[in-house]
């Protein structure tokens, strides 16, 4: 009897194992960040938590910097999924102004977290254009839903700009402005831009 | 007869010479940027233009990177002087909305020029907190003059954020948006923020 051809939809067993291993490692890493912060995530701690050898962790991520880059991608992807299809008000289903305000608050928190990961990834000042395009397009879409007229591409860029890590970190780290004042400020800005 | 004490208001002759030399070198450097762009400014070209030896240029600036840093400081200082005491509408004397719009346009042009100098100074991603404080304080002052109510510190930060080099360079270099559309967008943003 001839061997059946592998189906295109199911990856070969080795690949599926690898994917499961990668997923398990990412979950363990996310867990470590939650428990001990970015500084607490070492290659040793990750190997111990995931129950694999240190060699496996190094083969997967190359270095701690590589692991930080992977955590960053993972976090960005999860957040974008929540915006596109997660529960309202961040996800679809809430009125556009509520979605926009939920987006701003959520993105601020994410950017502050990401600033630490980017630094740990050895790439200070880095800025993902893919992530930036996504946020700007989303704000532009919501401004359209709100019936705002004008150069929506520019207004979206202007609303996203004060959420940039470098702006936030200066407000939070240098000027020690509390997050709720920053959130209130952005909410007021959105109402001025959208409300006219 | 005893030697007269030097007056505190007049520096000793050596110092005055040094200051004149520095000023002449800066003027020559500014001139070279105007004529040939940042790339055209080399230590050799500067020595030739200023009519001094190459050693003098190196003693003064240390390296081409040092020269770029000095050009950056010089340009920022000149611009701040123009905002504080130059002719209207950038300087005092024009109505606050006109001054604010003149500020935005002028700062955009300056930031694009500075982006090139910062890169040439070997410090990509650098951002002067002193310059940023000045621009934010100035916008805050003008918003107050306009009678805008609310968290003026936040609104000023939000209006300055889209003028940041990283935002502008993406609009200009990557998206190829013409400067007049960017200026029009910022003008509209200011009217929405101030006009409510």
From TrEMBL, chains A, B:
<dbReference type="GO" id="GO:0000976">
    <property type="term" value="F:transcription cis-regulatory region binding"/>
</dbReference>
<protein>
    <submittedName>
        <fullName>TetR/AcrR family transcriptional regulator</fullName>
    </submittedName>
</protein>
<dbReference type="GO" id="GO:0003700">
    <property type="term" value="F:DNA-binding transcription factor activity"/>
</dbReference>
<dbReference type="InterPro" id="IPR001647">
    <property type="entry name" value="HTH_TetR"/>
</dbReference>
<feature type="DNA-binding region" description="H-T-H motif">
    <location>
        <begin position="42"/>
        <end position="61"/>
    </location>
</feature>
<dbReference type="InterPro" id="IPR009057">
    <property type="entry name" value="Homeodomain-like_sf"/>
</dbReference>
<dbReference type="InterPro" id="IPR050109">
    <property type="entry name" value="HTH-type_TetR-like_transc_reg"/>
</dbReference>
<feature type="domain" description="HTH tetR-type">
    <location>
        <begin position="19"/>
        <end position="79"/>
    </location>
</feature>
<keyword id="KW-0238">DNA-binding</keyword>
<dbReference type="Pfam" id="PF00440">
    <property type="entry name" value="TetR_N"/>
</dbReference>
């Amino acid at each position: 009897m001839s061997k059946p051809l592998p189906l295109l939809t199911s990856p070969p067993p080795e690949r599926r194992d690898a994917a499961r291993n990668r997923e398990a490692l990412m979950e363990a890493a996310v867990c470590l960040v939650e428990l001990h912060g970015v500084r607490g995530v070492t290659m040793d701690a990750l190997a111990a938590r995931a129950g694999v050898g240190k060699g496996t962790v190094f083969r997967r991520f190359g270095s701690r910097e590589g692991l930080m880059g992977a955590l960053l991608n993972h976090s960005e992807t999860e957040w974008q999924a929540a915006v596109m299809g997660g529960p309202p008000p961040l996800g679809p289903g809430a009125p556009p102004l509520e979605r926009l305000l939920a987006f701003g608050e959520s993105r601020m928190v994410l950017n502050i977290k990401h600033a630490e990961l980017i630094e740990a990834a050895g790439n200070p000042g880095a800025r993902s254009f893919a992530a930036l395009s996504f946020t700007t397009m989303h704000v532009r879409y919501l401004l359209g839903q709100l019936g705002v007229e004008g150069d929506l591409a520019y207004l979206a860029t202007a609303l996203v700009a004060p959420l940039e890590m470098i702006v936030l970190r200066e407000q939070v780290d240098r000027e020690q402005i509390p997050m709720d004042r920053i959130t209130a400020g952005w909410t007021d800005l959105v109402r001025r831009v959208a409300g006219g």
